[in-house]
């Protein structure tokens, strides 16, 4: 009983709004358009080609890239790339970071996009 409760808890934590675990082949262009193939959730591994304008999701708050509706981050940030970091401890997880140069004067900035409202909902990216 106890062990299964722990396992369910870990599964719940690791899958919480983590689009990076369900999406593949992600690409980000200079205008902020993210395209990816995301698991449609039909249990058969079907992937849907989906896209979202990340300007609707993120903004530059003067110090960091923030989870911000209609934040228009690309007006302040350039050279943005998506980079997967793999953690093995304490639980295995993949996270997709967005690394950019932002602000005036320009500084390096990074956002863990798996900790934001960006999510895969049955094969459609939303935020
Ligand atoms: C696939 O994604 C597109 C665009 O994001 C969306 O309009 C469409 O409904 C999705 N199709 C399925 C089967 O989820
Ligand atoms: C972002 O751009 C949209 C469209 O140009 C605009 O409606 C919105 O007010 C802008 N948001 C911010 C925070 O500047
Ligand atoms: C992106 O930012 C994260 C967090 O600061 C960092 O660990 C990672 O090395 C960066 N990746 C690249 C390619 O700059």
UniProtKB/TrEMBL annotation:
Residues 23-112 form the Cyanovirin-N domain. SUPFAM superfamilies: Cyanovirin-N. It comes from the Eukaryota. Keywords: Signal. InterPro entries: Cyanovirin-N (IPR011058), Cyanovirin-N_sf (IPR036673). Residues 1-16 form the signal peptide. Pfam families: CVNH (PF08881). This is Cyanovirin-N domain-containing protein. It comes from Apiospora aurea.
